[in-house]
Amino acid sequence: MKTDTLTASFMALREKLHRSAIGFLKNDEDAKDALQDTFFRLWKNDHPESDAEARNKLFAVLRNICIDRLRKPPAATLEESEADKMAVFPDFTEDIGRLEELISTGLTDTLFATVANHEQKA
After folding, report:
1. According to the model, what pLDDT value does residue 47 have?
2. Which end of the chain is more exposed for a tag (fewer CB within 10 A), N or C?
3. HEC profile for 73-118?
4. What whole-number distance in Å separates Cα of residue 47 and Cα of residue 116?
5. Is the confidence at residue 103, as pLDDT, over 50?
6. Are 54 and 6 in contact (CB under 8 A)?
7. CA nearest to 58, candidates 23, 26, 11
């Protein structure tokens, strides 16, 4: 099986690219993700003709991907996002309980009068 110039250059420079990405991102997992994104972008869009061109494009695209990732604001953790949701929305447990009670009693004239009274208060 014949490998193309991009794949051969990427495999030869993989460790150097990884160290460069860690230098930018300071995180091994983020660096590995940046390497994958770099290879995929070049593989999908651009096929270099020579080893020198492949090397230059690999490092340039990796640098741009790392810079883009550093510019993005950090994502909120799950705990922070759940806390934000709880702070924004009031507690509806009483209203839900009352609604379930009204539904279980059936749709009667009393129900319509109760709903109408509730709407007038709101």
Report:
1. 78
2. N
3. CCCCCHHHHHHHHHHHCCCCHHHHHHHHHHHHHCCCHHHHHHHHHH
4. 69
5. yes
6. yes
7. 11
Q: Which two tokens stand for residue 97?
A: 């309980």
pLDDT digits (tens, 9 = 90+) for 33-76: 999 999 999 998 877 889 999 999 999 999 999 999 999 887 76
* Contact (CB, 8 A) for 42 and 57: yes
Q: Transcribe 34-62 into DSSP letters.
A: HHHHHHHHHHHH---SSHHHHHHHHHHHH
In angstroms, what CA-CA distances link 112 with 98, 99, 101, 102, 121? 14, 12, 14, 10, 14
Task: Copy the structure tokens of residue 22.
Answer: 């860690």
- Per DSSP, 1 falls in state -
Dihedral angle of Cα 96, 99, 104, 105, to the nearest 10 degrees: 150
